[in-house]
């Protein structure tokens, strides 16, 4: 590709380069989208998706590190140098058990890959400083893959992190937040006994689980309207004539902030501890993950809204004074609390009001129209990423806004 001087190149010209590069790869991107959707894989088991994406990026001439940051199904692909900001694109590709890509991670992967390629096309043509990163982020659906990537240093030095998410919403959400989420497992241990001949010799762990469940159900009456307590029993005994010696509950507690969620979890834990005392069982807890609330960069959101006016003028990407609340959780929330981030939601056509995490949304995520809308968001992400690389004042504005938010949390 012929390099052109950055002098007197208009923002529209950069965007034209981005748009064309993504359009030119539409067939290949659609193929990646289809492969991921047709072979759904659960958290940390996304081996086909990992291998297909790595192979595709290598076919485009990139050096890719597979199995990156100590995770078998993560990868990282960097382009550029250390003479400027680092922009990153999160590639999600795990599915849900039983219903496949009912959250559209095939589209998320496609959009982030396309945005990375569009950004690199502009970097190559106009000799832009800095670096672009395409990062494989497995296990969003409860596995906390991004938490492990944060700990491994995958986001160290990132000036801006991007991803978009398809949603069963009637309108696009540019500047939005989501709920924090604490997932944990409680195991009650009792003592087995013959339920007919010697029930008095047993300690019933099923009773403890039922009592704990009922306790949290009553607790729901005294929590805030935007808080959530959700639980399921995954083990409750095997035979009716045996006093149940072991029961297991999985719980998910949500609140508007991480602090609030932790406080609510403490109240839920008290219900479990009380149930253990009442039934003479012991109870042990295992924290499976802790997803933070999403805190997007307002500057990145405003810039994205402006870019999308040219990329997709028929759609609206408003940015309000405050973040629009969302009743979902994501480990991108944790990323947004360590680096400036953008996490836009975009509406895709659905039938019969099918929501995310339903079979109907799985079908919607496979349509050509969903793919088309995804590539529009990728052009917007790339446009903002190039702005971060190119405009020092904008990059400083993004950094300043993030640091001010961090200071407000202290």
Automatic annotation (TrEMBL):
Residues 181-275 form the Peptidase M20 dimerisation domain. Gene3D superfamilies: 3.30.70.360, Zn peptidases (3.40.630.10). The keyword Metal-binding does not apply. The keyword Protease applies. InterPro entries: Amidohydrolase, Bact_exopeptidase_dim_dom, Peptidase_M20, Peptidase_M20/M20A_hydrolases, Peptidase_M20_dimer, Xaa-Arg_dipeptidase. Pfam families: M20_dimer, Peptidase_M20. GO terms for molecular function: carboxypeptidase activity; dipeptidase activity. Keywords: Carboxypeptidase, Hydrolase, Protease. Belongs to the peptidase M20A family. This is Peptidase M20 domain-containing protein 2. It comes from Mollisia scopiformis (Conifer needle endophyte fungus).
């Amino acid at each position: 590709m012929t390099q052109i001087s950055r002098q007197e190149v208009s923002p529209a010209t950069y965007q034209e380069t981005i748009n064309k590069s993504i359009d030119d790869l539409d067939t290949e991107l659609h193929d990646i989208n289809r492969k991921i959707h047709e072979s759904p894989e659960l958290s940390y088991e996304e081996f086909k998706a990992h291998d297909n994406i790595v192979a595709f990026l290598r076919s485009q001439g990139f050096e890719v590190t597979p199995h990156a940051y100590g995770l078998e199904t993560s990868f990282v692909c960097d382009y550029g140098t250390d003479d400027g900001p680092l922009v990153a694109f999160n590639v999600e590709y795990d599915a849900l058990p039983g219903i496949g890509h009912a959250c559209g991670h095939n589209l998320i992967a496609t959009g982030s890959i396309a945005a990375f390629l569009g950004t690199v096309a502009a970097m190559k043509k106009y000799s832009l400083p800095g670096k672009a990163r395409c990062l494989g982020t497995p296990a969003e659906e409860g596995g906390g893959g991004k938490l492990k990537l944060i700990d491994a240093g995958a986001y160290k030095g990132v000036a801006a992190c991007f991803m978009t998410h398809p949603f069963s919403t009637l309108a696009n959400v540019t500047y939005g937040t989501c709920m924090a989420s604490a997932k944990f497992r409680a195991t009650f241990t009792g003592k087995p006994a013959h339920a007919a001949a010697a029930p008095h010799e047993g300690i019933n762990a099923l009773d403890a689980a039922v009592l704990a469940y009922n306790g949290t159900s009553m607790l729901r009456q005294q929590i805030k309207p935007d808080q959530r307590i959700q639980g399921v029993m995954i083990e409750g005994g095997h035979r009716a004539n045996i006093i149940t010696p072991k029961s297991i509950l999985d719980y998910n507690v949500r609140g508007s902030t991480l602090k609030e969620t932790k406080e609510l979890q403490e109240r839920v834990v008290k219900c479990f501890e009380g149930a253990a005392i009442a039934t003479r069982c012991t109870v042990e807890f295992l924290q499976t993950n802790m997803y933070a609330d999403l805190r997007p960069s307002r500057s990145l959101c405003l810039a994205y809204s402006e870019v999308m006016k040219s990329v997709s003028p028929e759609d609206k990407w408003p940015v309000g004074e405050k973040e629009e609340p969302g009743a979902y959780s994501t480990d991108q929330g944790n990323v947004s609390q360590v680096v400036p981030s953008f996490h836009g939601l975009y509406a895709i056509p659905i039938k019969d009001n099918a929501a995310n995490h339903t079979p109907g949304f799985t079908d919607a995520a496979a349509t050509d129209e969903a793919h088309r809308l995804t590539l529009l968001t990728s052009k917007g992400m790339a446009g903002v990423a190039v702005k971060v690389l190119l405009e020092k004042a904008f990059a400083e504005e993004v950094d300043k806004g993030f640091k001010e938010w961090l200071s407000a949390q202290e």
